[in-house]
Specification:
It is a single chain. Helix 4 packs parallel to helix 5, helix 6 runs parallel beside helix 7 and helix 8 packs antiparallel against helix 9. The longest helix is centred in the C-terminal third of the chain and has 24 residues. It contains twelve helices and 18 strands. The chain is globular, with a radius of gyration of 21 Å. By secondary structure, it is an alpha/beta fold. The chain has two domains: 98 residues, Urease, subunit C, domain 1; 270 residues, Alpha-Beta Barrel (TIM Barrel). Helix 3 links the parallel strand 7 and strand 8. The strands form four sheets. Strands 1, 2, 3, 4, 5, 16, 17 and 18 form an eight-stranded mixed sheet that branches. Bound molecules: zinc ion. Zinc ion binds next to loops.
Length: 409
Amino acid sequence: MGALLVRGGAICDVASGETIPGQDVLVADGRIEQVGESLTAPPGAEELDANGCFLVPGLIDAHVHVTAGSADLSIQAEDSPYYVAAQTAANLRAMLARGFTTVRDVGGADFGIARAITEGLWAGPKVHFGGKALSPTGGHADLRGPGRQVLDNHTCCAGIGVVCDGVDAVRRAARDQLRTGAHHIKVMLSGGVASPTDRIDSLQFSADEIYAIVEEADNANRYVTGHAYTAAAVNRGLELGVRCIEHGNLIDDSSVELFLAKDAFLVPTLVTYEYLRSEGAEAGLPAESQEKVGIVLEAGLEALERAWRGGVKIAFGTDLLGSMQVHQSDEFRIRSQVQPAADVLRAATLTGAELLGLEGEAGVITEGAIADILVTNANPLDDVTVLAQPEDHVRTVIQDGRIATDQRG
Ligand SMILES: [Zn+2]
């Protein structure tokens, strides 16, 4: 692969919150080889002028469902996997153009999708996947209505989860995801919005089942991330060894203490509730789910502020489904209402990288790191909402040392 020299941009050092102007960045073989002033281009290197622009580490969205082509996940589970793959390819391509060079899928994506990206068959962010999310009967990934008995757990069904009950069954389900190369195991610890029969305030799985899943992930040197809203569900998961909590809209101060004690991560996904309220019905969200949106929407910002003030490790997530996925970048605008720009950007770079086990490799523009770099025409460390309008501000996306998308006229 040829070298690329990015000339004269101002590097956004997300760790310090400072910008370093007039920097050249030389990338080769997918890595950042050299950073400094007035570098010499090696013979044959492509040059990209970034004078007057900012160089931002490639963004990480730690909560996506790339296969969710509809907000009605029960209908989607019965779609042709080929059709869902086509929707997935379109979702991924759009995410990359918004500046997301890596995503963590927490229900739906599998090893085939990750492979399609790494082999270059599809354009898109690199996909860290957990395979199917584990749910108990009647839990957040059990998408049957109350009158339906039949359940199809086949891996080729394009659903987001697998239903399993009892310690032996959850162990087998966890091992099944791990044998496909899953980067983590996703487990449903409480009720959710998009599921038809559970309550937001329900606790899901027994302690024995959760512990068994954590043990299986630990044995494989992987981790468990848990979907949970209430303090009761969040705290129970953290106490049992779950390393990361998705959503967490209804946490309290006791949860914050536990996050700190366990060195666990929180991935708020505020944008999804905003658009579930305004566009959910149109996107296919069933009526019984729409009623649940209000319970978590208002509390979400408050939870983010509580966690941020308490010093919890917060990653960036969105959780959008179906046609609402176009609003992914709006999470930057929502978070900027309670957090300073640098902290919002840290969530989508440094903290996301730490959660994914990519410390020093992603979320930074330093020698030796993976060459995932955005060229922007405004500084997100001054105003992070520039990332909320990628079509206006993200000029070029460099992924693994190659120009992936380029909006220069
Ligand atoms: Zn989700």
